[in-house]
Amino acid sequence: MYQAATFLFWTSFCGLLMASVVYAHEIIRRKQATKPVARVLSVISWIALTASIGLASAYHGGTQLTGPNTLVLLAWALILVYFILGFFLKFKRYGALHIPLAAALLFVAQIIRPAADSIAPYPEAFSAQMDSAMIGYHVLLITFANALFLVGSIAAALYTYQAQALSKKKTNALLKSLPPLANIEKLWVRVLSVGLPIYFAGQMLGVTRAIAVDAPSWYLDVRMMLSGAILIVFSAALYLYYRGKTDIVLIARIALVGAALVIVLMILARTLPVGFHVFGVFG
User: What is the pLDDT of residues 132-181, one digit of tens each?
Assistant: First the structure.
């Protein structure tokens, strides 16, 4: 079972790499005929990754929420968000950015996995949390929110880039392949608007569990403080947007600050060996 999970994982990774190459070819050459190929490869890769996660979970008696596995779950969620955007919101071109990012997450997960596997088990207090269904939902919600934040932030970056290029009357292959500016704006605002309440719900589950197990000074955990900063930054960006009195490019840049904090938190969550959330490479 474990060998099958490993085989499916690498099948998914290779499929995502091939899809990334096809998407890059579409942008550089502005080809339309190869689009179904990239999408089919992405679907097959996601199915293989889903099966890999399921088999690994069955083998270990449950999904282990270590650093490498949370990156795999994030990649899985990122691909799923891409499907939702592509098939329901008709934003298909963004696969050229989301699919390579998912492949990169899987690659990083495999790089840090040996270090994570060689470390001693979780401390007793944290092990008790890992047995809680509440923590499972907490991780699931945060993972999906992070995927949405990354997708929205990519769109915000493209919006900023395209707006600046249009103001300077510049053009290139990437700009010609992008949707209209209004569509990109709609994408990053909607995605962040959905991601924010999901993130807040996941955050509240974590806080509730921390209080329930009487974790010492949980509110001083660097990860908790950073998650609060992420919530504030994205809330500020959306507030300014819906208030309608601030330049949208500036708001998009604020959203990019939030994305930077998400990435910093993802790194610290898996490498910082102190605090309430001790997991990842160090356990």
Answer: 567 777 888 888 898 889 888 888 888 888 888 888 777 776 667 677 78
Tokens 């998914």, residue?
A: 12
DSSP 77-133: HHHHHHHHHHHTS---TTHHHHHHHHHHHHHHHHHHHHHHHTSPPPPHHHHHHHT-H
Diameter of the chain by CA atoms?
60
Structural domains of the chain ordered from first start: 1-118 (1.20.120), 123-278 (no CATH)
Assess contact for 126 and 279: CB atoms under 8 A.
Answer: yes
Pull the structure tokens for residue 40: 């089919």
The pTM assigned to this predicted structure is 0.73
3-state secondary structure of 73: helix
Task: State the distance between the two ends of the chain, measured CA to CA, in whole angstroms.
Answer: 24
Q: What is the DSSP letter of 31?
A: -
Q: How far is residue 79's CA from residue 94's CA, in Å, rounded to a whole number? A: 11
Which tokens go with 264? Answer: 């910093």
